[in-house]
Design goal:
Radius of gyration: 27 Å
Shape: globular
GO molecular function: MAP kinase phosphatase activity
Number of helices: 9
Oligomer: single chain
Protein name: Tyrosine-protein phosphatase domain-containing protein
Distance between the termini: 67 Å
Helix content: 25-40%
Structural class: alpha/beta
CATH topology of one domain: Protein-Tyrosine Phosphatase, Chain A
Largest sheet: 5 strands, mixed
CATH architecture of one domain: Alpha-Beta Complex
Keywords: Hydrolase, Protein phosphatase
Order of helices and strands: HHEEHHEEHEHHHEEH
Length: 255
């Protein structure tokens, strides 16, 4: 092994790999990557303190990292992912690659909770299948509805990106638990309209420059924006604010 390879181990598992012989661990990142971001991404996300963790296959493949978190059990949600450390952890693997077996997974997690064990739930990237299992567990164990459970997981692992197919399975599971489902799209649950007024950055500016809007004399129905069949009426108040903002900006530039 060359000297440059000995000086450049894998950033996550710490092993020295023979890249010239195509021995790849799957953890390697370019040398230009930020080391601090690597350290953060190397750790699984804590969902419930002292009990439930959520992560990727990279997280699950590093036994020493899991041991530092006190993790003793691993729930593998992807049948094609190998259980690499059977001598160090107790594994449970879901056997269906398309349909998530929520009841099977939750039964394992409930047993881990009773045994006061720390468990990692993982899929390949930690973004889709494993977060869905964790969301389903929260619905069952905490009595939360789907939106609340999803938000709890999303806040603790922002990279979560549940697919439409898996989202549909979660809605069906919610209906199974509560008899109804009022969640149509999990991707929209993180969007919270602020309701704050748009001020164009002028809320703290008070210029002693009189501005008269030429649009104030136009009735709302006589001013349109755009052309052809796609024309849409714009409120006079909004146009006046925009014109005022443009005028003030021009005045500032000339000062």
């Amino acid at each position: 092994m060359r000297k440059r390879e000995r000086e450049n181990p894998c950033g996550i598992c710490g092993h020295y790999h023979k890249y010239e012989e195509e021995e790849v661990c799957g953890h390697r990142i370019p040398l230009s990557s930020d080391k601090s971001s690597l350290q953060v991404s190397a750790f699984p996300s804590l969902i419930l303190p002292g009990f439930l963790y959520l992560g990727s296959y990279d997280n699950a493949s590093c036994s020493e990292l899991l041991k530092t978190q006190g993790i003793t059990h691993v729930l593998n949600t992807v049948p094609t992912c190998q259980n690499l450390h059977k001598n160090s952890f107790t594994y449970h693997c879901l056997q269906d690659g398309k349909i998530l077996l929520f009841d099977d997974a939750i039964q394992f997690l409930e047993q881990c909770e009773m045994d006061k064990a720390r468990v990692l739930v993982h899929c390949m990237s930690g973004k889709n299948r494993s977060p869905a299992i964790v969301v389903a567990f929260l619905m069952k164990s905490k009595g939360w509805r789907l939106p609340q459970s999803y938000e709890w997981v999303k806040e603790r692992r922002p990279s979560v990106d549940i697919s439409q197919a898996v989202s549909q399975q979660l809605q069906e599971y919610e209906q199974k638990l509560y008899g109804s489902s009022n969640s149509s799209n999990l991707a929209l649950l993180s969007f919270q309209p602020g309701g704050a007024p748009v001020n164009f950055g002028l809320s703290e500016v008070n210029y002693p420059i009189p501005v008269a809007s030429i649009f104030a004399r136009l009735p709302p129905q006589e001013f349109t924006f755009g052309a052809g069949q796609t024309q849409k009426h714009i409120s006079v108040n909004l146009v006046a604010v925009i014109f005022q903002w443009m005028t003030l900006k021009m005045a500032v530039n000339y000062q």
